[in-house]
Amino acid sequence: MNQGGSQAACQGALLLIDSTQGIQAQTISVYHTAKEKGLKIIPILNKIDLPAADVDRVANQLEATFRIDPSDILHVSAKTGFGVENVLQEIVHRIPPPPGRTSAPLRALLFDSFFDHYRGVIMLLSVESGVLKKGDRIVSVHTSKKYEILDIGVMHPGETPTGSLRAGQVGYIVCNMKDPTEAHIGDTFHLVGKPVEPLIGFQPNKPMVFAGVFPFDTSEFPRLEESIKRLTLTDRSVTIQRESSTALGQGCRLGFLGTLHMDVFRQRLEDEYDANVLITAPTVPYKVVYRDGTEYMIRNPTEFPDHGDPKVREIQEPYVKGTIIVPQEYVGAMMELCSEHRGEDFADIRYLDSTTASARVLLECRLPLGEIVTDFFEKLKGRSSGFASFDYEEDGYQRSSLHKMTFLLNHVPVDALAMIVHQSVHEVVGRKWTQKLKEVIPKQVFEVPIQAMVKGKVVARETISAMRKDVTAGLYGGHFERKLKHLNKQKEGKARLKRIGKVDLPQEAFFSLLGSGNKK
Q: Tens digits of per-residue pLDDT, 472-483?
């Protein structure tokens, strides 16, 4: 379910903390998001029955981090059922009732939706005021389209028809909406002929990681595209755009909320639709600012402007505010890791535990989003022995020295391998990828240079030696000039081939190259 939408449709939230693990990086971001929406938060410590549980230490963490009074924290064990009934009672006592009035005109907020193949789009609404009944005709403020309520009810926990929803209630409606794109998250609905002021919605999540998805067999593209569209009916945060590559064929460029979202989507694609796909290295959206003040978002490296374009004023890349929680003995390794990935502004370094020997430290810094979408998480877990937790939130765009790196095979550029790299890692990235290309490209009958080029200059090079054929094998005896004549003829032929020969990068080489890149 959409997290921002579900929070917009309620008055309170439960902050559930594992008493054996303590506060994680994700805990902090979720807590602050709920506080910004004005929700009443009930802190709960779970798993208190386990031998490894340290209730006092975690309670002190909550007090130090969020200024939560330890006496307000509920203690439960979901496994044994201890304290669960108390949680239900505290929800009633602590969380305020919805403020809406049933006598006011209908205003309902759409906070989530999903698709049913038989009934169409099923919308989840929060009724802020008024009454909504089966048979009513409603209007979308965003699209001005009208719908008739065919079914209405609450989630208890499945769909339970009630015939109506009143102010303060949250439930589902079926209204014969067939196109999922008509359900705009944050939209306001009202009765036909009774217009109202739209509710203050919320910003739906924007995709921040983009990757190309291609089938291993090009004839499977129509089936892959249909599978992706069906999956996006239940995951509206994924954006789709057709993409064509000379090397990989027809595919789709998808936008995800993050790398974990991308991995989950790929896994669902393989498990639910038996799709055999290749996902290219993830990229992030860059912003090109032109001298006339206009801005353009780049989601594909092939769209990146050439170096020295007089119309371009600057290139900006997205930054995030990262939060790392780690035992104190790993703080140095974490700061070193962030610095290697161009981390800056280590604004907040504080201890969450002040009494224990193995105290945990909260570390905050700014990082380029492009640096954490590849192998940052693997390095984080490796250098902290698996103890570190990491979370991030958007922190705007910043000017950066970014350039497009292109790869040339026998002096011919291969557009499908283009990538955007920072000035500080031109040579490192260039050497890494030219070595990969040398491993996967088959030998030719002539020497093939592999070059990585940035700003018109070659920053790395590897050479695939020519396939050697022994043209003198059939010559026995005679003067050495006979052999020399054959060798010179072979040499001239290879030189001519090198000038006019074309190196085709086979599709299998692309799959091997990009597949190994994804694993690393």
A: 656 666 666 767
- pLDDT, tens only, 99-133: 878 888 999 988 888 888 888 889 999 999 999 99
Q: By the 8 A CB rule, do 211 and 253 touch? A: yes
Q: In sequence order, what are the residues at sequence separation of 6 or more whose Cβ sits closer than 8 angstroms to the Cβ of residue 77?
A: 46, 47, 48, 49, 83
How many helices (H) and strands (E) the chain has is answered by 12, 27
Q: What is the dihedral of CA 233, 223, 281, 383, to 10 degrees?
A: 70
What is the reported pLDDT for 518? 45
Q: Are strands 12-18 and 40-46 parallel, antiparallel or unpaired?
A: parallel
* Cβ proximity of 300 and 253 under 8 Å: yes
Query: What gap in Å lies between CA 231 and CA 487, rounded to an integer?
Result: 60
CA distances from 201 to 65, 114, 453 (A): 29, 19, 47
CB 14 within 8 A of CB 87: yes
Distance CA 19, CA 48 (A): 6
Q: Is the peptide bond prior to 157 cis by the omega test (within 30 degrees of 0)?
A: yes
Q: What pLDDT, on a 0 to 100 scale, did the predictor assign at position 94?
A: 93
Residue type, 449: P
Q: Strand locations in 65-219, DSSP E?
A: 74-75, 107-116, 120-129, 131-133, 137-140, 146-148, 151-155, 159-161, 164-166, 170-174, 188-191, 209-215
- Measured CA to CA, the distance from residue 499 to residue 496 in angstroms comes to 5
**What mean pLDDT do residues 429-453 have?**
84
Q: What is the mean pLDDT of the chain?
A: 83
